[in-house]
Amino acid sequence: MSEHAHTNRLARETSPYLLQHQHNPVDWYPWGPEAFERARAEDKPLLLSVGYSACHWCHVMERESFESDEIAGLMNQLFVNIKVDREERPDVDQIYMQAVQAMTGHGGWPMTVFLTPEGVPFYGGTYYPPVDRQGMPGFPRLIQSVAEAYRSRRGEIVEAGRQLLEQMRQGERLRSSATLLTDEILVGAYQAFAQEFDSREGGMGRAPKFPQPMNWDFLLRFWKRTGNAHALDMARLTLTKMARGGMYDQIGGGFHRYSVDGQWLVPHFEKMLYDNGQLASLYLRAWLATGDAEYRRVCEETLDYLLREMTHPSGGFFSAQDADSEGVEGKFFVWSPEEITAVLGDPEMARAALAYWGVDDRPNFEGHSILWVPRPPVDVAEALGLTVEHLAELIAGARARLYEAREKRVHPGLDDKVLASWNGLALSAFAEAGRVLGRADYLAAATRNAELIMTQMRDGERLLRSWKDGQAKIKGYLEDYAMVGMGLLALYEATFDRRWLDESRRLCDQALGLFWDEEHATFFDTGADQEALVVRPRNLFDNAVPCGTSVTIEWLLRLAVFFGEERYEQRSLTALRPMADLMRRYPSGFGRYLAALDFQLGPVAEVALVWPSAGDPRALVQATFGRYMPNRLVAGAPAGSPAGAGLPLLAERPAVDGKATAYVCRHFVCQLPVTDPVALAGQLDAGV
């Protein structure tokens, strides 16, 4: 934060990232018509700067350039300056990132793009230093030459921008794929993953290593579908290595963003809601698939971390925690052997902790230690002459004491805005884990979250993207609708509260009206009622977060089964078919599409649970949810109650002999109803 007492226009925003820049001497505008009107009136180009709160180099560039009176003076004189939080405006970020990648061959944040007053990009890049450095032009020199070019070579610049836009629009046109949607695509994707796989350390490729939860989710599904043991081994090695790496917060739970090395040891320390929501779901499913208790522990520690540190009293989940505290990256998370020994006090516990977390090997990060588990716990126990159980008790005790000590440190910055799409991912995780693990606190958190989204993050019927301290803004994008919609389906299956299923369907019908484009037979990311940008954004890749289209495809397929609505399935297949070739050849960019295709190929187990008003369906619920079945759908209601109205799965389904009863169907073929959980388990396992 600079010494400047004055504030700029960003002081009126709610985004924590924009508010960090409110005291810059730069005359920042938020994205909006006001900035473009001024650019047109003064015939100036615009300087668009895009970043986000947990981005390390964004803070560096702010410190070096945007807090400098001299550089800010140049920016104010030569440009109309706009600051954007990419998490609030993924549409703006995506269009101009595509432009920067087309112009320079690479992209990233902070992103700096120069636009004509019509919003057409004509030059851009990422981080620029304040003075010329290592072949990079200094920021002041760069902006002066861009402004000069805009003044003296206007025609050339406008033409180059026009060509770039044309290229961006062309790139968006997907040829409809001739490939049929078959198992072959899944096999091809598996083979591509197997070639990329790091068989020593897990993960794809060498370094850096990203968690990529959708890849492992697909490989678990592929193992379930085919019995291919190597698919399961790849997922297991990766999940175990990640859970024992420094990328996982061994003390507080939850995952950092990614690891800069190939061993999952040194992380980029920020923690993002979207990673933790997806990874909690992944570890839960891996526990169901394998019975490995370590996966269950990681799922619970991750969700407990979100409840403890990332939840607003109203039920919203916060976006991110910074990598830096006290201006130093990772400072909050690292330890020295002396510190650990002093905090723990008990010599046996300290000896176990230093060995278990690899601290007695030697410092592994700038003279300090990131805690990780470099050796299998069974080997550590043997070396210390302890039983595995006793070691686990000592480590649990050490973890609690170190957490308490760490809480006294200066915490990293928190981005406390609530984004609908990322909340949808966390909502799914809490609902599913609450149901599977019998955790009432998780179900309560999921229900509170859904309540907040469906009451406070709406403008009439319209879902909004961002909420902070009671104020909601920005019309939701396709990803917001789809991820919240999937979260509501998970919450319905976890509670059988009909309200959530109906809300999900309402959102879906609205999304089809807003985002589906009949002419192009595709989904766009911005609604028909949203601001028109120079290109209508359509992101087709699953990256760190799945894209709106892939989640929508699965959402439609699931709703089609719940409501027996063929139009949902038809629409989803129209969107899925053109992706067939890409899914097979570049599976790591299409992980969530692969999950949707796996569901579509089925068979899907449709489970209907009905019970008399006095009956207790819990034993049948446990049998239904206590196994790994990714392609399963569950509806439940007291027999004959309105909660089952309009759902084909529950139509004319009586409770047999006055007991809770399960009906299992696949491909329109139904098994005989059962009232015994063991018989139900047999039916569920038989059809897989």
What would you note in describing this structure?
There is one protein chain. This protein is α+β, with helices and mostly antiparallel strands and 688 residues long. Among the domains are: 9-171, Glutaredoxin (3-Layer(aba) Sandwich); 331-411, no CATH class; 605-686, no CATH class. The strands form 7 sheets. Strands 1-3-2-4-5 form a 5-stranded mixed beta sheet, sandwiched between helices. A hairpin with a 2-residue loop joins strand 15 (462-468) and strand 16 (471-475). Helix 8 packs antiparallel against helix 24 (591-601) and helix 18 crosses helix 19 (478-495). The relative contact order is 0.08. The mean pLDDT is 94.
Strand content: 5-15%
Task: Give the rounded overall mean pLDDT.
Answer: 94
Numbering strands along the chain, what is their spatial order in the largest sheet?
1-3-2-4-5
Q: Any idea of the CATH topology of the domain at 9-171?
A: Glutaredoxin
Which architecture of the domain at 9-171 would the CATH scheme give at its second level? 3-Layer(aba) Sandwich
**Helix share, percent:** 40-55%
CATH superfamily of the domain at 9-171: Glutaredoxin
- How many helices does DSSP assign? 26
What's the Cα radius of gyration?
26 Å
**Strand runs, count:** 22
Ranges with pLDDT <50 over ≥5 residues?
none
* Alpha-carbon distance between the two ends: 58 Å
